[in-house]
Amino acid sequence: SAKGMGRNNFQTYVAVPEESHQQRIALETKLRVAERNNELRVYYQPQVDSLTEDIVGMEALIRWEHPELGMISPGFFIPLAEETGLIVSIGEWVLRVACNDTKRWQNRFNLPLRISVNLSALQIKQPNLVEIVRNVIDETGIDPTLLDLEVTESISVKSIPNLMETLQALRDLGCRISIDDFGTGQSSLDYIRRFPADKIKIDQVFVRNIGVDPDDEAIVRATINMAHSLKLGVVAEGVEIEEHFNFLRDHGCEELQGYLFCRPLAPVSFENMLAERERLFGAGSGSVEITAR
Ligand code: C2E
Ligand code: MG
Ligand code: MG
Ligand code: MG
Questions:
Q1: Predicted TM-score of the model (pTM)
Q2: Which strand (E) or helix (H) includes residue 255?
Q3: Atom 42, ligand 1: which residue's CA is nearest?
């Protein structure tokens, strides 16, 4: 299949660590073409309530559907998009598409679905980010309190002097801010305390080791407790097995995201999944197990 083929071809094509300057330029050109030719896709991965297993929202995750190489993961091209500045227009496009799709599904299924969109540091640096987000909210009619913007913990005030003000301005629009990949950066606790955020996302490197490494389990527990003490919500990513799920739920992590529940889905598959749930459990119903599991 095109997908399987893409995987294999891609490795010889990019080889990220030792890629040559020429390969990089070639990839940059292809990425520009991809944007123009509508080869970029937004996939959606559900986030579920750990107690009820309701779908409470989903994360928008970009994909590149290359005509010959198949589906290319963002791990390969987002760093390049950031280096070249292409992430600014790509990120705005993702935001608009994600809000549009979400608004449509909120209406069709009568569910208060929340959408999480990743923001890159370069987007936050743009002086007009808040204006862009406001425009997308106005154009799509999305409830801003259901728009969650994820910024990675490693984002720094040194490189983005307007970071705190910008995040606060986004919250003033009604949006929520999540600290993504939490625990993998070098933030001080003082920095975390002052960070204008609503939620912490525990990184999958810690979740992966639940049931394996007691130190990582201790970090997960401490993170959940710290978040709650600071009046922040907690979501865990990379939940792959029941053992992760049970541990996180039992330690009070309120939301979960991972392959155990569902992989990131193409919009049509995501919509079909919601339709199937509605068929099985009734309109507006969420108090049921996610069927994809
Ligand atoms: P992230 O924001 O931390 O997203 C979570 C990643 O974990 C996603 O990888 C998701 O597919 C993956 N994941 C979800 N559940 C599991 C699981 O159970 N096990 C494992 N091993 N992985 C799981 P993905 O889609 O490849 O995205 C990678 C990164 O690319 C994202 O990490 C994010 O930093 C970046 N990214 C994706 N879309 C965008 C975007 O629209 N804008 C920006 N700026 N960055 C994006
Ligand atoms: Mg994220
Ligand atoms: Mg993350
Ligand atoms: Mg991550």
A1: 0.91
A2: strand 255-257
A3: 118
